[in-house]
Amino acid sequence: MCASISGFSKLSKSKKIDWIVETYFFNAKETKNILKQYWNTNEKLQQLHDEFIENTITNYYLPLGVAPNFLINGKFHTIPMAIEESSVVAAASNAAKFWMDRGGFKTKVIATTKIGQVHFMYQGNKETLNQFFKHIKQQLIDDAKPITKNMEKRGGGILDIELRDKTQDIKGYYQLHASFETLDAMGANFINSCLEQFAKTFKTQALAFDGFSEEEKNIQIVMSILSNYVPDCLVRAEVSCKVEALHEDITITAEEFAAKFIQAVHIAEVEPYRAVTHNKGIMNGIDAVVLATGNDFRAVEAGVHAYASRNGRYSSLSHAKVENDVFTFWMEIPLALGTVGGLTGLHPLVKLSLELLQNPTAKELMQIVAVAGLAQNFAALRSLTTTGIQQGHMKMHLMNILNQFEANDAEKLTLIEYFKTNVATHSAVVEAIENLRLKIND
Ligand code: HMG
Predict the structure, then answer these.
(1) Which of 203, 242, 247, 280 is catalytic?
(2) Protein residues with CB under 6 Å of any ligand 1 atom
(3) Is 85 a known active-site residue?
(4) CA pair distance 375, 381, nearest whole angstrom
(5) For the segment 10-25, what is each residue's pLDDT rounded down to a tens digit?
(6) In-domain check, residue 35
């Protein structure tokens, strides 16, 4: 029987579990055991995880893998990836190895500006609002000094505040559109605190501004919040080599491969159905590193996809060309990341991941994450335009199917060997397990 409950958040962890188990599950004991088997025996560590979010009942594990051999701007990196999907880490590693022998990845941070907005309603004279904004702008910045002073000492802070007229979209709608430099912090809390202070100053100073009529003084602040759309927090990643150097043991010539690869990218540039899947492949790499380094993958996802639609049609994030016999594959994407604050100093595996990356600055992490996305996209397109995706993907997915059928170690060894030379589809694997078990039982 399902039910609602009041005061759930105030219950202890074990009482929460009791309620869940009694309300939704038939086998209370088994359910509790499943939840508890993921608790860490180190109580302090478990408490840390319990307190990351609210109403925690257990831990939800994701594997943390590593992809070695990433040569980025002449320096080798091993990239940590937290992801549940088989073949992603293998694909990233494969692309890293491929480009390691062809000069590696080149990256550049183009800009690091982040955005926040105070959205407000004002029904009066526009010119008077402009005058008020000019009059108040410095005070907006000054009143936020207690929040910005430390960031300023490090070289960041508020870059600018603009008044934006959005009345063409909604009657009476305006914004304070502010830009920020947050250095190694992702900056969400810093930006939101500044914005809330701007809103306070704006509202109170409007009441005291002589230029406004009594009605105009009544500015309505709707909300103050950062934007996860960061088109000016942009990083570029690129690989290039002579077309002839693309040749490996693939079944087509280097020229044919380059041409087909570029066609595949062009299709993703013009066809949204394809672009979404193409970019999903890029996000396989990006999200995995963003998660491993304790960053906000929802913010990154939202910002990246908005960027992919910036010209009015959803399109490929990556591009490819051949010019003067040189194949170039590149991507520019917005990434607002942090290497301090948030989970970065709290989660032991995030700390470990950052250490594995030699404790990068936020700018360095932007470049590493962009490379992981480009590598992933290269590996997927390389498979798609040559062998097809299923061959490699199913080779990696094989273990999941074997585990699903509770194959023992001996069965796994036999079947892994078998599928080195046979095509692994879900039904072929199931059939092979059944045949093997029949043979053993005969
Ligand atoms: P392969 O050529 O059969 O691999 O590729 P290999 O066995 O010859 O090994 C070569 C290298 O690949 C290895 O070098 C590793 O770097 C890596 P080594 O370590 O031996 O010196 N590698 C592995 N790394 C870790 N564990 C492994 C492993 N196997 C190989 N088990 C591979 C096999 C899967 C890598 C290749 O077929 C591939 O890259 N496929 C693409 C897979 C992919 O994109 N997966 C993502 C999921 S599909 C998806 O969601 C996205 C998509 O829809 C996006 C789109 O449409 O654009 C496809």
Answers:
(1) 280
(2) 85, 87-91, 93-94, 97, 277-278, 280-281, 284, 379-381, 383-384, 389, 392-393, 395-396
(3) yes
(4) 10
(5) 999 999 999 999 999 9
(6) yes
User: Ligand 1: distance of its center to the CA of 363 in Å?
Assistant: 28
Q: Residue 138 sits in a domain of what CATH number?
A: 3.30.70.420
Contacts of 65 (CB under 8 A, 6+ apart): 80, 81, 82, 83, 89, 288
Please pick, among 13, 16, 18, 85, the residue that the annotation labels catalytic. 85
Q: Which helix (H) or strand (E) holds 106?
A: strand 106-109
pLDDT tens, position by position, 399-412:
888 888 999 999 98
- Could you confirm whether 153 is annotated as catalytic? no
Residue 302 maps to which CATH number? 3.90.770.10
Active site residue 184: no
CA distances from 350 to 3, 302, 355, 376 (A): 37, 22, 8, 21
∠ CA 36-40-45, nearest 5°, is: 135
Q: Identity (one letter) of the amino acid at 407? A: A
Confidence of residue 250 (pLDDT cuts 50, 70, 90): low
Among the three residues 227, 254, 284, which one is the final residue of a domain in this structure?
A: 227
